[in-house]
Amino acid sequence: RGKAIGITVTAVYIGLSVGPLVGGVLTQYFGWRSVFVVSTALGVPAIYFAIWKLNSEWYGAPGEKLDVLGSLLYAAAVTLVVYGFSSLPASESFWEIVAGLVLILVFIKWELKVARPVFNVELFTNRSFAFSSLAALINYSATFAVTFLLSLYLQYIKGFDPRTAGLILVSQPIMMAAFSPFAGRLSDRIEARKVASIGMAVTSIGLFGMTILGSDTPIGYIIGDLLLLGFGFALFSSPNMNAIMSSVEPKFYGLASGAVAAMRLLGQMLSMGLATLVFSLHIGRVKITPEHYPAFLRSVNAAFTIFAVICLFGIIASLARGRTSNETARGPENRDES
Prior knowledge:
The protein has about 350 residues and is mostly helical. The chain has two domains: about 1-45 and about 125-335, Growth Hormone, Chain: A, CATH 1.20.1250; about 65-115. The protein has helices at about 1-30, 35-55, 70-85, 90-115, 125-145, 145-155, 160-170, 170-190, 190-210, 220-245, 255-280, 295-320. Helix content is about 75%, strand content about 0%. Mean pLDDT is about 85; it is low at about 325-338. The chain is built from twelve helices and no strands.
């Protein structure tokens, strides 16, 4: 399983490798709106081929009903929380976040009693699954905004154009793509929790390395740190996903994958929300001009410090999951048997 997951993750990171470079070129020559045009042009055929080629894969049990209310509650909750974080530190954003969190509690209560939940909350009674998912949430919370922060830093402080900035940033996902298959195979031989925890530790070191960025920081140092971050994330991602899928029975694979996707979304949202909040507190809602560069640098350093500390808690969560194996895999239906 680890080898297959590693190959899948590699495909994802190849896309991430191409993204910053293509995005930089499009932004420089055609404007930032062109990025969305190209994404749509590529996304529509991808949806078509997925439906055409994977039709039998998502054909579920006939007669089962979709949890419509649960889906609506989840969509509304995530929308409110995401919008609230994006509006920080505006006063109304606090109430939007609170309303979103309340809806999440209502959603959880509903999912616990509905016959066919869209999100099986009881999976989180499985310790290995719960802590592996928490580790994924923390990892995305600590790393998703890295590209955003460095893109601004490279353009404002270093004076690079979007294309060159994208070319520099591509070093991180290239490292991820190169080592994800190795990490996946390694997690088949060595306890996945150990490999993933080492990956989280390496990522934390890389984030701490970004806390000293200044106007005179060599580009070689930045690229080296990006490579270190990419290596750490590769060591974490495939083994962590392997641990998650090994902690549940095969019939729960779809639900487990969906839960991990939710953790990823929440982590990405929290990461960007924290970065936005730090910028708002240090700079405010102003255009970044040369006179604001010192405050901008302080914001970048503060954000990376926060992310590095968050990643330290991720190491704890990763280690706390315990041992996982295919032989001991279990789901919510038999969680009390062991």
